[in-house]
Automatic annotation (TrEMBL):
Residues 1-22 form the signal peptide. Keywords: Endonuclease, Hydrolase, Nuclease, Signal. This is Endonuclease. GO terms for molecular function: endonuclease activity.
Length: 781
């Protein structure tokens, strides 16, 4: 690759100014081996024999220091000042010293070493003894080389060409954030992950598990990663190379293109890493899909349904004062660092969490909302669900916008209080002015797994696994033309991928990621999906199955509920073994799933491959789904995964555990780790109309007042005994923007001075209405 060359004078100055660490070592009169000859044009150095990892001989190598390091790597990076104009060979290399380099080895110093060449876990390096290092004076600094990824070349292949070099992210580099700054379990430190051209997509979001396409995309993703790392581990809440990190202005989102960052390309923990050498500003993160203040408002919709995983909204901490949940032994348990309370432990953290969630819910403006990860502490006044609904209703002045929550029947409650036995539950809230429950909610009991198995090493283990129960409520739509038209909403939160189940244990994948890429407990989630499918076959009317399925778009549980065809499947979908429901045996051994329920995945239908609600390990995908039956699909006018969480930085979530002194924001961004999903529906509504008759039974002249509007030149004052009728066709009401279905403040202006209210709550203009003024008061009959 082309590099800037030092002038002959600069080279001469460097040579005569060299000083040695040890009097018996000097590179003078030695045959120098250029760095690019050490690196070669392959994946390992040509100076190391095949089958070996270190060269038999030592070489004299000289270069300009680009970065000195003491933690992630112990030594310093040097680069050839001239280069060889060959893009296939790197001009930089790491010099390993085993400890922090001496203070005089700093960027810009020319250094010569005698060292053997070693392939150290994938990175070519020079292994130098301290007494084999010669340091000269400062020379012209190395100019960073712009990264380019050639057509047909993977990002990993490109990084091999730049290994050890000082590079720069330019617009043409087209490197984007695919995992926001956060904890990396590979290197056990905070860092950020880039990919080329676009963020990585979870293979099983797009392709059936076990398919050639899924395997190919997994391989492609593995070769499209570059970590942005640091030498020292970073303090909580700090990105050392980005001092402008800020919740409102200096935010980072997955999909942002990063430019102007310079650094050294190293290799460790099986991945290429760029170690920054400069600082960047907020403008260096180019937001490709920036924040929006609210979800899309789809034209024509009149009912909105949404789901939202609220990331453990708990009220049971002492400072918050909520009831204890189903798993708590006592208050001390709820207040313990690792106790039964999975959410906020202080009032300040809870207040921030609730505020962020409420601000998100207000912007969503849904009429029915399914919630996951609500604390399972009952339905009373001190429950988490009551706390949220109370706070949410405070945001709306109009009572027609207020919410209520669904409470399950007493016979369905665990211990007379709870929905199931987990610390968290699913929940439903709704606007009574828009929809009304048609009957009691139905709890759909999910399978448990209780079975003993042996792993491939012959070790026995008892597996006891549980899933959260699902909740179904059938609603009537207020004002719909069809009186018997209903919408049944089912809220779900299937078993997580985090810990292993029986099938993982016997397959030897209990601690490792399963080979089919579906995560742990997939068969157990399939059992849950099969149970749902069986129950939902009975549902009449419109059906919407939504929530956190903990399964990506083309994984088995989603396919069981959508379009799985057993006869055409190359790989059969199997349920879990050792399952039961409420103590009744389900499947002693796993069975094959039958034909899918036939629901339509609305996000995939509307947005195709661009749908996602969650980010994990640098890959985007949808864990949160909206699955509709055919009759409901016809009413859908739009669906959106509102990207306020999955692409945002977790440092701005409510918890301060890992964010240090970083300032938070009350905005909806980073309110949770899952994006809400909002579905806009269009129901055929009855044409609204009203007949409002106003009668003056007083002795004084009066005039009707609507929302402070009262003077209509076509209508005189009403005298004693006068009656007047207003309908939705009234020209005056149309002129001031009042129509059928609106809530208005109706009053009577008496003597042209006194404004007497007819009702203390807004009057909804619908149906037959009558207002009577008797001289002292005005009332609605």
């Amino acid at each position: 690759m082309r590099m800037l060359k030092l002038s002959p004078l600069a080279i001469a100055v460097a040579l005569v100014s060299v000083t040695s660490h040890a009097s018996d070592f000097s590179c003078e009169e030695q045959t120098l081996t250029p760095i690019y000859s050490v690196q070669g044009d392959g994946s390992s150095s040509p100076l190391i024999p095949d089958g070996e990892y270190i060269s038999p001989d030592a070489y004299f190598v000289k270069g300009v220091v680009t970065k000195s390091m003491s933690s992630l790597y112990k030594g310093f990076f040097i680069q050839d000042a001239a280069g060889d104009d060959n893009e296939e060979t790197s001009d930089g290399i790491f010099v390993y010293t085993g400890s922090a380099p001496s203070a005089d080895i700093q960027p810009g110093m020319e250094v010569c070493v005698e060292a053997k060449v070693k392939e150290h876990y994938g990175m070519t390096q020079l292994v130098a003894q301290k007494d084999k290092v010669e340091v000269g004076h400062e020379v012209s600094p190395i100019i960073a080389t712009n990264i380019t990824v050639r057509d047909g070349e993977t990002l990993v292949e490109a990084m091999e060409r730049y290994e050890g070099m000082l590079v720069r992210l330019a617009p043409d580099s087209n490197l984007q954030i695919t995992r926001n700054f956060g904890f990396d379990y590979g290197s056990y430190r905070n860092n950020m992950l880039l990919s080329h051209e676009a963020p990585l997509i979870k293979p099983t979001q797009l392709y059936v598990a076990g398919s050639e396409d899924a395997t190919a995309l997994a391989k492609q993703n593995a070769e499209n990663k570059l970590y942005i790392d640091t030498d020292e581990k970073t303090p909580n809440g700090v990105i050392p190379y980005f001092p402008g990190l800020d919740a409102e202005q200096g935010y980072i989102r997955v999909g942002d293109q990063l430019v102007n960052l310079e650094g050294i390309i190293g290799f460790s923990y099986g991945q290429y890493r760029l170690i920054p050498t400069n600082n960047i500003e907020p403008a260096d993160f180019i937001h490709q899909n920036d924040r929006t203040a609210a979800p899309v408002e789809y034209i024509g919709g009149n009912i909105k349904v949404a789901s939202f995983n609220v990331l453990n909204l708990f009220t049971s901490a002492s400072e918050v004062g909520g009831d204890l949940n189903a798993t708590c032994s006592d208050q001390a348990d709820a207040d313990a660092a690792k106790g039964c309370n999975r959410g906020a432990k202080t009032l300040s953290e809870f207040s921030l969490q609730r505020t962020k969630i409420v601000n998100a819910l207000k912007a969503m403006d849904a009429d029915i909302l399914g919630i996951m990860e609500m604390e399972n502490n009952g339905f009373g006044a001190n429950s988490a669900i009551a706390n949220l609904v109370t706070e949410l209703n405070l945001q709306f002045n109009d009572s027609a916008d207020h919410y209520a929550y669904i409470e399950i029947a007493d016979e369905d409650k665990n211990q007379g209080k709870y929905l199931g036995s987990d610390a968290i539950m699913v929940a439903l809230i709704y606007r009574p002015a828009k929809v009304t429950p048609a009957d009691d909610a139905q709890v759909i009991r999910m399978p448990e797994q209780h079975i003993t198995g042996n792993n491939p090493d012959g070790e026995a283990k008892q597996l006891d696994k549980y899933q959260r129960d699902s909740l179904m409520q059938t609603f009537k739509i207020v004002g719909t033309k069809k009186k018997k038209e209903t919408l049944s909403v089912v809220v779900n939160h299937l078993k997580s991928k985090g810990s292993g189940c029986y099938e993982d244990w016997i397959n030897g994948e209990y601690e490792d990621d399963p080979a089919d890429l579906q995560g742990h407990c997939n068969a157990f989630r399939v059992s849950g999906a099969m149970t749902l499918s069986q129950e939902l076959k009975k549902v009449k009317g419109d059906l919407l199955v939504m929530g956190d399925m903990n399964a990506y778009g083309m994984e088995d549980p989603v396919r069981v509920l959508t379009d799985y065809k057993p006869k055409k499947a190359e790989r059969k979908i199997m349920s879990a073994s050792g399952t039961s429901i409420a103590g009744q045996p389900l499947h002693a051994t796993g069975i094959e799933a039958g034909k899918g329920l036939g629901l339509i995945n609305l996000a995939s239908e509307w947005h195709g491959d661009d749908s996602y609600s969650y980010s994990y390990g640098g890959e985007l995908g949808s864990l949160d789904h909206a699955l509709a039956n055919k009759s409901l699909k016809k009413k859908v006018v739009g669906i959106e995964d509102w990207h306020i969480n999955s692409v945002e930085n977790s440092l701005f979530e409510y918890s301060g555990k890992y964010s240090g002194s970083l300032a938070k924001s009350e905005g909806p961004y980073s309110a949770s780790d899952h994006d809400p999903v909002i579905i806009s529906l269009k129901y055929k509504m009855k044409k609204l109309g009203f007949t409002l008759k106003i009668q003056n039974k007083s002795r004084q002249p009066v005039y009707p007042v609507f929302n402070t509007w009262y003077w209509d030149s076509t209508k005189p004052w009403m005298m004693n005994g006068d009656k007047r009728t207003y309908t939705e066709k009234d020209r005056f009401l149309k002129h001031v923007g009042i129509k059928a279905g609106d809530a208005v403040d109706l009053s009577i202006l008496a003597y042209g001075v006194y404004d007497v209210p007819c009702t203390f709550t807004p009057l909804v203009l619908e149906g037959k209405l009558k207002a009577v003024y008797n001289g002292n008061s005005c009332r609605i009959q």
